[in-house]
Amino acid sequence: MKGNEALAEGAIRAGCRYFFGYPITPQNEIPEYMARRMPQVDGVFLQAESEVSAINMVYGAGGAGGRVLTSSSGPGISLKQEGISYIAGAQIPCVIVNVARGGPGLGGLNPSQSDYFQATKGGGHGDYHLLVFAPGTAQEMVDLIELAFDKAEEYRNPVMILSDAIMGQMMEPVVLPEMRTVSADKPWATTGKNGRSKPNVINSLGIVSEDLEKINIELQDKYKRMAAAEVRYEVDGVDDADLVVVAYGTSSRVVSSAITQLRQAGKKVGLFRPITLWPFPGQALADLAAVGKRFLVVEMSAGQMVEDVILSVNDRFKVEFFGKLNGTVPTVREVYDRITAVLSKGGEE
Amino acid sequence: MKKIFAYPRALSPKRTHYCPGCTHGVIHRLVAEAIDDLGIQERTVGIAPVGCAVLAYEYFDVDFQEAAHGRAPAVATGVKRVHPEAIVFSYQGDGDLASIGMAEIIHAATRGENITVIFVNNTVYGMTGGQMAPTTLPGQKTTTSPYGRDTATVGYPIRVCELLATLDGPSYLERVSVHDPKHIIKAGQAIKKAFAQQVAGKGFSLVEVLSSCPTNWGMTPEKALACVKEKLIPYYPLGVFRAPEGGDRS
Predict the structure, then answer these.
(1) DSSP per-residue codes, A147-208
(2) What is the reported pLDDT for B246?
């Protein structure tokens, strides 16, 4: 299945029954799939008049207790940021997919990882975080979308899947899980009082500054719990490695191919692949730095995740960077050569 | 002895933050009475706007979601699609609905979304201190049109009911006023009719309520109500723009 379609079917099987979206390339397979599929499972597909409306429909549907999904790409995700901030502030579960393309501005349609800052550092106004998953295979699209819905509801927090044009368009075999049924019954949801003594109110307003402070303390406590419990990453051959290459999503696949060739050539190189971009697996990187590893960060951007790696390692001289600017994917050869060059530079500088 | 007057059950017994002489209180009460009369309090969900009525969720004893500025019809759509049996209404001002939220209201209307919209038009942004709204009358002074609204540079007011009446989606559109008891009674009937449309599954209903803003108009409450009658109604004629019975495209 195409990555986008695998994600869409994975969402349906995870019990998602509400989808609100707007056309934008390269994510169109998701709403098109949902338009066909939702009526078959008594779900709702609605093409909104704008990205802004789509995310606010998500706010309404999530607030009413539904498992709700929206998807878009960079420019559309920018438009959704107002709504995402409200959803984070009001603590409403939902899942947002960014099938990222190159920017800034209208940018291009090719894959990019230049929305990392937007995804992990807030994106909209205010102090908030999304849980951000970065799938590396079509299978992971399926697995992580299910996890995303469960975590969104567990923490009452929006979850973002940061994919890209290649992950979305690439075809790979996937194993789909069984269809799950989930209840829209949530004690805090806006369903109508239906006998409850007090109305449920969903908002993100704290006009009195002490009230707003209380809301923010509660949010930060939650983010701390998420940071402690939800870090996910994958390592391959880091134990004996002289150099650990850090990459996620599409670039991690190119890096993985280069590393396979390098190890066949006797070079000690490992891969560290963050699966959660927020919370970032910084402690694991710090632990590797403590035993003397050096790092090369490979991204399809001018360098965004590399900032988190440097912060984690706390030694910028241990961290090299190789980035391809928007719309281009590094080739295995390029990564191979860069790793070789970094290795030949030796250890301490 | 029969009780003929009581505090509406759908209204919370709280003191509101509205200015003296503001008509939001009257309109809140009319909405609450409609909810009571139709017996729908237990399944009603309100959507509050950004503007003077941002705290509406404090005053109604029904479930509420507070929306971003102008987005209430989209939020209402999300709630309604998850709970089609719920009665969902948004309560919005003219800056919220007719300026920043114009796309949301037009598309909710054209979808025939089965929700009810209470649209309070007082021709200014009240909460932010009386700036010019899309509904500000030609020549009307506001803090951002201090020399009076100059239609040559900022254009003309928008008549929302007339605009929405060009669409096939809405099932009921009416403009009412709350400047005197007679009109308040009529407004209450219209609001109840709008909710009844939704209960019957007839689709999108909107009642525009011409309202006063003594604070930002710089008038006494009495003078402000006279102004609704003398200035607003001539520009925003009262009446039904889409009849509930259907077929009326006037």
Answers:
(1) HHHHHHHHHT-EEEEEEEHHHHH-B---PPPPP-------TTS-S--TT-SS--EE-----S
(2) 56
